[in-house]
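Lab notebook, page 48
Experiment: co-folding of the full assembly
Goal: obtain a model of how the components sit together before planning crosslinking
Operator: M.T.
Materials (sequences as entered):
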Amino acid sequence: MKMTENGVFSRDKVLTIDTMNPTVKNVEYAVRGPIVQRAMQIEKELREGVKKPFTEVIKANIGDAHAMGQQPITFFRQVLALCSYPELLNENMFPEDAKNRARRILQACGGGSVGAYSASQGIDCVRQDVARYIERRDGGVPCDPDNVYLTTGASDGIVTMLKLLVCGEGASRTGVMISIPQYPLYSAALAELGAVQINYYLNEEKCWSMDLSELESSLAEARKHCNPKALCIINPGNPTGQVQSRQCIEDVIRFAAKERLFLMADEVYQDNVYAEGCQFHSFKKVLFELGPEYSDNVELASFHSTSKCYMGECGFRGGYMEVINMDAEVQAQLSKLVSVRLCPPVPGQALMDLVVNSPQPGEPSHITFMKERTATLSLLAEKAKLTEQILNTVPGITCNPVQGAMYSFPNISLPEKSIKEAKALGQAPDMFYCMKLLEETGICLVPGSGFGQKDGTYHFRMTILPPTDKLKILLAKVKEFHQKFTQQYS
Amino acid sequence: MKMTENGVFSRDKVLTIDTMNPTVKNVEYAVRGPIVQRAMQIEKELREGVKKPFTEVIKANIGDAHAMGQQPITFFRQVLALCSYPELLNENMFPEDAKNRARRILQACGGGSVGAYSASQGIDCVRQDVARYIERRDGGVPCDPDNVYLTTGASDGIVTMLKLLVCGEGASRTGVMISIPQYPLYSAALAELGAVQINYYLNEEKCWSMDLSELESSLAEARKHCNPKALCIINPGNPTGQVQSRQCIEDVIRFAAKERLFLMADEVYQDNVYAEGCQFHSFKKVLFELGPEYSDNVELASFHSTSKCYMGECGFRGGYMEVINMDAEVQAQLSKLVSVRLCPPVPGQALMDLVVNSPQPGEPSHITFMKERTATLSLLAEKAKLTEQILNTVPGITCNPVQGAMYSFPNISLPEKSIKEAKALGQAPDMFYCMKLLEETGICLVPGSGFGQKDGTYHFRMTILPPTDKLKILLAKVKEFHQKFTQQYS
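Observation: model returned without errors.
Model output:
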């Protein structure tokens, strides 16, 4: 009991840090962690006129394309406006293909309104369009719309799948293999679910590729203390920017089959492939090319989203997952589980539909759509190259090529003295580095420790999304800062 | 191992009903359960030309106003169209207040796009508008925007709060008190989290009101085997349609204070009050009227949504929660937890903003807005009355007044013979009844067993949302069916 401002006695809270759910306390999510909080404070200080050695904060901490100035695809937004306010269907200002898409989506909605709940698994015709998109993408490998679940962004699908998988206690607790470095949604979800996180390290020397021997030894070690049930892959890679080879995917599938692991393929960057000689191969396509021994057996969930690629429509929280070879009873449980949350946001479902059913040759919006799409992807490819090139000119920074996705995850050499100073402050050395970078230059990056890295190595993740002029400033500032930092602590 | 169609041996699945998460298996959600699945099948059969004793399925199973023909508020949809496709700001077809709202929302979005992620807690200016709305609603009781969290519908907020609360094992496992009958999101979330569901029964004889003595005895009993930490209230009630009196809310708050329970007030139907002499009182307002001994101490989370009231915009998945007297460290954990899912859908946030910042007197859209709002609420009030009146003319059906919300939860007398037949089929007797009603009349209601009810009593929940002409058909058919059913099994 303590006295409050109002002069009454205040009791202890019911819900305190000691009485709350301990698994929630274990959750960490660096992409929106302390560094981003501080960046937002600094932005506020700048608005209030506080003097800083810079005039704006440049945020390269999160894959948020529109926030960095990328323009939405005109066609998508026209259809969304038509769906929101169908009166516009009577106006002459929209192309016929946009109107047709809107009419088709509205017809599939209860009462012809995007304000109605959809089926929990998603609007029927959207799932059918997703299935046809997957079939085209995978050279005709069949896709059953009943295996497609629309989601609230890819994160929602990933967490739902993990939720199905996790059970047991002690040595029989479910273990899930995730890459290191990883996208911290995975570690956060596993912490919250109380599952065992099994790390497998990507090979930085080989452009962040997956090593079969590493998978094997990591799994063997994990089997001593938990029950490994699933293997998560992010391809193209976040935060690594790596694009997996067909051979690698084949190896991973054979490994999963042999070791009896459920595969989760996070393929939200499937259109973001920039490097010469690299190509996106879906896990599903490779699985089916390996023949029925694999395609009839290996359980796979694949995730996609409206938030990345050339769309960058994060705010709509659209996405889908496809489940392959899932046990029928489990799938019924999945369908039940998603029904509790009623349905994914319908505007996001509509947007997902447009992504998988974009304007076709001959339709009035096709040329503009292709121009916008190509321009966005070409610009990203340029910025990927630029980022790699400039970072590699900095002594003490080594940067793998950004083959795909939207991120660079360069290795940074930190002087011993800075590591000691960070540790004295109880900070990860790369957090100390990134925080100093933010304070001195206004650049917001995420320390490698938020994604995981080999002990004794340090990194940061930066997005390649800022507009080219700002990206150049950012890279120049990082270069200058790194040199100054190295001198200061040498 | 078994042989598949392709002639290869199929292995056992990694993920089976026996190896999956057992807490997920315990989840039930009647509002979208087997009866709704069957209704969808029947709709498909009707489309395929299968002959039935009816020509359409009338769905009164879910509070989905637009699906039942309710029209969206014009102003809301105009602003959403403008936000989706800002080119429209250059057109003359939209009123200035709609354009101003859209500009304000877009300015608050990263890159001026609703396709950017927002802050995880929600867009700043939307949270500020929510805070001002709450202050107006509660006669000036202050609201700090930092205590407002935008959510993906109210369900998301409720599950998040429960997630924070649940911990412990065995006799120290967290218990959460919920009303019976309840909205099955609560039981589903508690099952999934492995928390103990503590039932308190509403008093059907007193119009489904809360009894203090029932709360006390239910809590005392629960303390023997778990650690009760929270008390959930739905007001106006789902599925009961009851509106709580100010006195009752006061009693509940005093009870929560005395017994040290965290209060969760589901207030998504706050505009849906129809009955003479009934009024919505927010838990927060009453809490502050009780003075600092309560308002400085009792922990409360209150939930609202864009899905109900006069808006009925379920598909957008918009909502907010306000937390009051939450421990600062716990609130930091809450903020971290919501950051993992990045942000609620931005169109839903925009819509929430319009609800709390609707057209004001003097603005060009005000008259139309008020006309639409009033028409929708008046129609709902009429249908509430109609439902109660007609159902009460049926021998064997007793129906409390629908004071608020969107549902009636009448008591149905079932003949002994039907109860026996249901039990022989392994069905709840009211499920047996509702399933037969569906097959014979095409009317889709949800059995009371999906919401919970006193042993030996039977109910169904029906929404009052169908258009008046269909609602009349529905009620007439229910009447006829009930009489036939009673005869058949007597």
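Interpretation: The mean pLDDT of chain B is 94.
Next step: discuss with group before ordering constructs.
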